Amino acid sequence: MTAQKHGSGSSGTIKPDRKIVKLYLAAIGANIISLSLGTAIGWLSPFLPLLISPDSPLDQGPVTDVQATWIASLLCIGAFGGTLLFGWSAEKFGRKASLLATAVPLICFWGCVAFGTTVEVLYVARLLAGLGAAGVFLLVPMYITEIAEDRIRGTLGSFFILFLNIGTLVSFVMGSYLSYHTTAYILFTLPIVFLALFLQFPETPQYLIRRNRVRDAESSLKYLRGYTSTPDHLEMLRSEMDGLLVQVSGEKDSTEQNSRISLADFAPPSARKALLIGLVLVSLNQLSGCFALINYTAQIFADAGSDLDPNMAAIVVGAIQIIGSYGSTIIVDRCPRKHLYIVSSFFAAIGLFAMGTHGYLKSQHVDVSAINWIPVASLSFVIFIASVGLLPLTFVILSEILPPKVRGLGGSICTAFLWIISFLVVKYFPVMVELIGLHGCMWVFSAVCLSAGLFNAIFIPETRGRSIEQIIHAMENNIKS
Q1: What was the pLDDT predicted at 11?
Q2: Which stretches are transmembrane (predicted)?
Q3: Which of 90, 146, 177, 240 could disulfide-link 204, Cβ–Cβ 3.0 to 4.6 Å?
Q4: 18-201 and 264-480 share one CATH topology?
Q5: Fold type of domain 264-480
Q6: Which residues pair with 149 in a beta bridge?
Q7: Between the ranges 110-114, 399-403, 408-412, where is the mean pLDDT highest?
């Protein structure tokens, strides 16, 4: 966001002695909490079968099917409330302080898992995980967008899903080889590590300027860009600061802006259109089924009749998901966002359709023993291809298209809506499996992925290599390419 003079895709090069190592380190530091959240999300898949089994670690014994769906879905309820809290906090206390605060509910989540002995404590744990998830989903993309140079904004933005997926795989692996309580004791330390490491990184320059802390903003920008005291670097620093000051001065007085933002600020066509696009994007992200599939991975493979051990299958899927996410970090700033999103949506639809077809044939008592590899192969392919484009680009595009003035409120609204949709999908996915079968659910998810590709092609402008001002101009003038 902040590199509008020297970091745009049009310039193509930067000075040889320019160092941006600290920018990458800041992005990685911020995403340690994404890694921690990934472990909290991935915890359910290996341990839900344990919780509903006679070997349940809870004092009351196995949880019921209804209790299991609440354990799965309460994360989304906690996230809905957390979105409102962290959206307010991001404007009141800043991006950095609010991001640090997300570690607290995640520490409490692992504490509840480690020491809780009743299903009610697990309900509280999942609500707390949701509270932390809301802050992470809202604040990590926001922080990265406001510190990144235009030319690598997509790459740094895609770190979010990559680290989230790494955390999910960590839980899959630990859940397969370590005990219920040992896993919780170890993963309890991750948010603490985040607190210790992220403290050294600065607040975003854009937020500091809005708070009239221009000197602090200059220090932050100098740190993030690796500027030295050489004349060339000082000139680059002044130029970039001038661009930020002009951007903020074009908005209302910074104090008013942060205390009086309301829905009326979405009256400009670009803001209103960005909000509507954001709401549709997050809806498609969840209705594609990927989050539900991750929550129920082990059970899905068991129900699909795969020959592979369900937990091992989940690990395979998690590893492939990471490969896809890493691929996204490599190509997101080299390929047009639109093309990447559309292609990944189309191929995800094909993979889901194939999995649904396998399930349908099995439900009709057709002998599918020769093709029992299809559930693992199809779901692995879907998670891989979605992790390259459909999943990470949702958050990259959302953080790019929202105008700076309403980014906090707009991001909160979209993230809150995401968690509402997520709750409905996760809570009622088992119900839908009962009503229309697993194959029917896969076909519905396939149709949603196709719709996502069409929506992007028709309504969303290309954002790769463009400054935020250029993106807003494209939104206002219906420029798609």
Answers
A1: 39
A2: 21-48, 68-87, 99-117, 123-144, 156-178, 184-201, 274-294, 314-332, 339-361, 373-397, 409-429, 435-460
A3: 146
A4: yes
A5: Growth Hormone; Chain: A; (1.20.1250)
A6: 3
A7: 110-114
Which top CATH class is 18-201? mainly alpha
Q: Read off the pLDDT band of 64 (50, 70, 90).
A: very high
The pLDDT of 39-57, averaged and rounded, is 91
59 touches 120 (CB < 8 A): no
Contact between 344 and 410 under an 8 Å Cβ cutoff? The reply is: no
Q: Check residues 32 and 410 and name the one with the higher pLDDT.
A: 32
- Are 461 and 115 spatial neighbours (Cβ–Cβ below 8 Å)? no
Q: Which residues contact 110 (CB under 8 A, 6 or more apart)?
A: 40, 184, 187, 188, 191
At 304, the pLDDT band (50, 70, 90 cuts) reads low
Contact call for residues 40 and 188 (beta carbons, < 8 A) = no
pLDDT of residue 15: 41
* pLDDT score at 316: 82
Q: For 366-399, b where at least 16 C-beta lie within 10 A, e where not — what string?
A: eebeeebebbbbbbbbbbbbbbbbbbbbbbbbbb
| pTM greater than 0.70 (yes/no) | yes
Domain ranges, ordered by start, for the chain: 18-201, 207-253, 264-480
Q: How far apart are CA 241 and CA 222, in angstroms?
A: 10
**How far is it, in rounded angstroms, from Cα 335 to Cα 333?**
6
Return the higher-pLDDT residue of 231 and 184.
184
Mean pLDDT over all residues of the chain? 84
Rounded-to-integer distance, Cα 159 and Cα 140, Å? 10
Name the maximum alpha-carbon separation found in the chain.
76
Tell me the CA distances in angstroms from 43 to 6, 49, 86, 198, 220, one per residue in order.
42, 11, 24, 24, 36
Between the CA of residue 434 and those of 108, 301, 428, 429, what are the distances in Å? 34, 16, 10, 9
DSSP labels, 272-321: HHHHHHHHHHHHHHHHTSHHHHHHTHHHHHHHHT-SS-HHHHHHHHHHHH
**Residue written as tokens 């693992």?**
376
Strand partners, 13: none
- Measured CA to CA, the distance from residue 397 to residue 328 in angstroms comes to 13
- Higher per-residue confidence, 137 vs 396: 137
Distance CA 390, CA 337 (A): 10
Nearest Cα to Cα of residue 471 among 397, 363, 387: 397
What single-letter amino acid sits at 255? T
How would you class 76 by CB atoms within 10 Å of its CB: exposed for 0-12, middle for 13-18, buried for 19 or more?
buried
Distance CA 227, CA 236 (A): 8
